[in-house]
Design a protein that fits this description.
With about 170 residues, the protein is mostly helical. It has a domain of about 80 residues. The protein contains 8 helices and no strands. Helix 5 packs parallel to helix 7.
Length: about 170
């Protein structure tokens, strides 16, 4: 019997709590009221200037990075290959006189070597020393300095016209 009494007491307490909560709910809950601010700004008034400032700063940073990049001031690959770029004027007669004075009257230039080095001078990151030394060692002793002259004219002077000038004047190596 004690069991039923406890069960009854628990049920009665649960029923009373349920009844009280149903009666009290309308009095406890409040209606949600939106607060009206005194001053409102449209989103566009803040957003558009921020976007414009961000775009201008981005363009400024891009231009600054471009101007500070050392590659900006190096010759381009197109310029190094001689495509649509005018070569600086060279005094062929003076170059010929200097080479005769330094190397003797029978100096010569390997035209194909000279032109090859003109074309590849700006495109390679490093000079192919292994190929140069191999070709150098295969030539006869008296022609080795002229091979290096041809490499120098191609890599340093970078003038196809100069290489062709020496061929036209009969200074081609055989």
């Amino acid at each position: 019997m004690l069991f039923f009494k406890r069960y009854y007491d628990t049920l009665s307490i649960a029923f009373e709590l349920l009844t009280l909560s149903l009666i009290a709910v309308p009095y406890v809950t409040h209606e949600v009221v939106a607060q009206d601010g005194g001053f409102e700004l449209p989103v566009q008034l803040i957003g558009f200037p921020i976007i414009i400032i961000a775009v201008r700063m981005s363009n400024f940073v891009k231009k600054l990075a471009y101007s500070l990049n050392p590659n900006t001031y190096r010759r381009s690959i197109r310029a190094a290959r001689g495509i649509n770029v005018t070569e600086p004027p060279l005094n062929f007669a003076k170059a010929d006189r200097e080479l005769v004075r330094q190397l003797g009257p029978d100096f010569c230039v390997y035209e194909d070597v000279c032109i090859e080095h003109v074309r590849t001078a700006g495109t390679k990151s490093a000079t192919d020393w292994h190929g140069i030394i191999n070709n150098f060692s295969q030539l006869p002793q008296n022609k080795q300095q002229y091979y290096l002259l041809s490499v120098f004219l191609g890599d340093i002077i970078r003038s196809v016209k100069l290489c062709q000038h020496f061929t036209e004047t009969g200074r081609i190596c055989h």
